[in-house]
Amino acid sequence: MTEKITLSKADRKKVWWRSTFLQGSWNYERMQNLGWAYSIIPAIKKLYTKEEERKAALERHMEFFNTHPYVAAPILGVTLALEEERANGSAIDDTAIQGVKIGMMGPLAGIGDPVFWFTVRPILGALGASLASGGNVFGAILFFVLWNLIRMGFLWYTQEFGYRAGSEITKDLSGGILQDITKGASILGMFILGVLVQRWVNISFALKLPPRQLSEGAYIEFPSGAVTGTELQGILGDALNGLSLTPTQTQTLQGQLDSLIPGFAGLMLTFLCMYLLKKKVSPITMIVGIFIVGIIARVLGIM
After folding, report:
1. Structural domain of residue 148, as residue ranges?
2. Separation between Cα atoms, residue 6 and residue 80, nearest integer Å
3. CA 92, CA 58: separation in Å to the nearest integer?
4. In a domain, 3, yes or no
5. Per the structure, how many domains does the chain have?
6. CA-CA distances (angstroms) from residue 287 to 23, 273, 280?
7. What is the pLDDT, as a whole number, of residue 62?
8. pLDDT band at residue 231 under the 50/70/90 scheme
9. pLDDT in tens, 65-79
10. Average pLDDT over residues 223-227
11. To pair with 147 at 20 to 30 A between CA atoms, which of 64, 243, 286, 294?
12. pTM (2 d.p.)
């Protein structure tokens, strides 16, 4: 019987230390994938002895990954457990590992910013600044030490938590727990993506459409000749009540789209990008293409 390969605490510490450099090589195509792959290399070397297996493992971890750099630790922990079980013969495929990563990174990313950037760091910064403003150099040292103790401690303990949780998941592969988590994680990831489309993808058309003739009563009919004080008061009242100053209303393509479905153009662009990704079009090609189309549309006055 082949002896089970297990990641030791020392192996997991190597991954933990490397994870602090998660954003050391960030790119617009796959975001943090290089930092992620760099972090997990010690585990890959321990779990897989054959060169082909190591290459395959490294290749599957070069896929897209992006989340808050500190909350990536529990995802790393779960992934280490999945890779460990896979190396020992469990039926865990690339899709399951990638699905769990993608499903976890979206929801956790929303936690990292308010906890670290908007709570912990400002509190520590205010504490250090209060000392430094009095000429005490210990203020800067205090901020540096406390911030890194909290940051490094959080990375280690949440990675260990994810590792233990991942080990529990893989004990019941036959019961479908991993499959259920993978499916749920994928659904959750797509839900988060759908919510963020309107926030992140913004397209505004500048094209003007022919003006629309308003019906009587929808606009102010100005009297001919001199205007009395009473008439002026009525005109101002009508204007404040929302009546148009002209018998026609200017129309734009963007306004018509917004009246139907707000964010419709951004949604269509997202669907187009998803379709092109399915057709194996390089993300870099799409980014360059969007830049070119945007510049041309701006010059022509379309956007």
Report:
1. 9-200
2. 10
3. 16
4. no
5. 2
6. 21, 10, 14
7. 92
8. low
9. 999 899 899 899 999
10. 71
11. 64
12. 0.64
